Amino acid sequence: MTEKVSLFNVSTSVAEVTTRMTEFFDEKERLAASLSGQYAELWAAARQSSAGGKKFRPALVVNSYQALGGTDHNAAVVVATAFELLHTAFLLHDDVIDGDTMRRGQPNLAGSFSAQAAVRGVRAGSAATWGEASAILAGDLLIYAAQSQVARLNVAEPIRVALLDLLEECLFVTAAGELADVSFSTSVQFPELSEIVSMTQWKTAHYSFQAPLQAGAILAGADHETMRALSEYGRNIGIAFQLRDDILGVFGTEDVTGKSAMSDLREGKITLLMGYALQRSGTDELREVLTREHVTESDAHRVRELLDSTGARDFIENLISDYALSALAALELPSIPSSLREQLTEVANKACERSA
Question: What is the set of domains in the chain, with CATH numbers?
Answer without folding.
Answer: 3-353 (1.10.600.10)
